[in-house]
Hints:
It is a single chain. By secondary structure, the chain is low in regular secondary structure. The protein has a domain at 55-242: Ribonuclease Inhibitor (Leucine-rich repeat, LRR (right-handed beta-alpha superhelix)). Helix content is 13%, strand content 11%. It is built from 5 helices and 16 strands. It has helices at 2-22, 314-317, 347-350, 383-398, 401-408; strands at 72-74, 92-94, 116-118, 142-144, 163-165, 187-189, 213-215, 234-236, 258-260, 281-283, 301-303, 331-333, 356-358, 361-362, 370-371, 376-378. Strand 12 (331-333), helix 3 (347-350) and strand 13 form a beta-alpha-beta unit. The longest helix is centred in the N-terminal third of the chain and has 21 residues, at 2-22. It comes from Sylvia borin. It is found in: Secreted, Extracellular space, Extracellular matrix. May be implicated in biomineralization processes. Has a function in binding of osteoblasts via the alpha(V)beta(3)-integrin. Binds the alpha(V)beta(3)-integrin.
Amino acid sequence: MGILSCLLILHLLWAASVFCQYEDYDFEDEYGGEPDQHPYYFNHNTQAEVPHFPFPVECAKECLCPPAFPLSMYCDHRKLKIIPNIPNHVQQLYLQHNNIEAVPAGPFTNATFVREINLSYNNIKFHMIDHGVFAKLSNLLQLHLQHNELEEFPFPLPSSLERLLLGFNKISHLPGNALEGMPNMTMLDLCNNLLDDSVFKEKPFSNMKNLTQLNLCNNKLQTMPPDLPSSLQHLSLENNSISHIPENYFNRLPQIIALRMSHNNLQNIPHNTFHLPNLLELHLGHNKLKQVFYIPRSLQHLYIEDNEIENINVTLMCPTLDPLNIKQLTYIRVDRNKLTSPISTYAFFCFPLIRTIYYGEQNVTGSSPSQLRTPVFRRFLTPEEFQDAEDNHEILNQETEEDHEAEDSYFHSYY
């Protein structure tokens, strides 16, 4: 009995070590996901039924199939050049960080129940993907192909797919039918590709009725993408060359929660552009803006750093006071503008919930940046909290421009 007890304890300790290794695995970490992001969870109501299988489970010899996670097969970081055969019971397949160049149909012959595939950080090219290999996976919900060598959009894809990540490839166009027949798609990431305005000619996104997040950052766009679905909540357009937002553009996107357009060429924004009922976060830093604009009641965080604003006209931001509909703005970042004085105290009547205004350094002259009398304005903080905030912003100022670009270069799916 003593020997059996010792063996049982050793088995439990081994299983626990495997669990600790993989329990927090989140593919968004590959992009330096923000610490408060929420991981993606499958819809349990659509959980694929897996036939009963004996222990130990079948596993490719090149991979790890821990008993604590019998539906997962870990083949990542193993210098693999080909995809191993996938057992019938596998639902999560992790093949990232290998040297895989092709995706043949053979290994997926028995992968009836696979729901998540990560093939990121490989060397896959479009013409090396067998036609229809993904489309046959009728339970597939999540597909990661970022950081590969794809020159074209990898269609056809299964109608079950909910999340598709294609960032950091060489995709330059989207065929008109590439995204047809995908009613369940909620998140599409096309950041860091070679897309230009011609991609919108065939209205590729217009029929994606359930799309809530679209990432088009770090491409070659010069205009706002037309005909986006009204379901959209998170839109990433930073690091493009967009110079203008058409008036009433967002009338068709009333559900927008977060918009990122930093690192573009915006100069003027029509006054009521962001008259959106659900907007919480707005990033417009690193543009060429000369004045502010209307702030919707819902907005909480505003980033307009590194522009050419000389004066914060609060009446443009807040034309009227309405005690029954208090504006929710709590944070403004205005460093690297041309401000010579702090924001008018009238702002605290318009935005009574303001907690922080970060002034930082201002580009008042063409020579060296200047500091306002108070680099950070903070309310409702203890002296200790205030000092911590000051220290954090000092660290922020010491970051290099490359750090800022890396921080703003990707729209993380953290909602």
